[in-house]
Give the backbone structure.
Amino acid sequence: MIKNVIFDLGGVLVELNPEKVIRSLFSEENSDYILHNIFFSKEWREVDRGTITPEAAFKKHIDRLETETFSKVLGIIENWNEYMPPFDDMYELIVRIKASGKKIYLLSNVPPYIHKMTGTLPALRLFDGFVASCDIKLLKPEKEIYEHLLTKFNLKADECFFIDDTRENVEAARRLGIRAHHFANHDTQALENALKENGVEI
């Protein structure tokens, strides 16, 4: 029996679209460089892991971007929560899940800006707890981050249902005995069907 529903953040509860944001704020040339070398870089994962600050991770690009542009990029990264509008339909779904008596949790690869969102994102106020990668130096799909969530909140894997927009993260959860759904293309109907098929009456 499913007692707990676990959500990812970016791409599930809120929009995550660096390309749209960056291209709206910078020239085409700078946008291409910023997206490839910063937002889609291997260093970004370490920022998510919380082992390095954005300034330290990306300072090697300061000469190419010039100081003013680099400072603007850092400001955007450190306040990225402001560029992630919530999905209203997901908030409504969470309200229904909560009303059904299930516990709800967040498991996200996310930098420290997550702590700015806890007071401003309405959905997060309904959560029973969350685990952010930056706080524990672990990342999905590493099995240890799922195990940390289960241990921290005293959850049983077979009583949990996990939702993520990255297939690799979903498959990692399944390997630990957690039922999971790949939330692709913001298909909320498919998600609702999957929840119901797993005994979450909403």
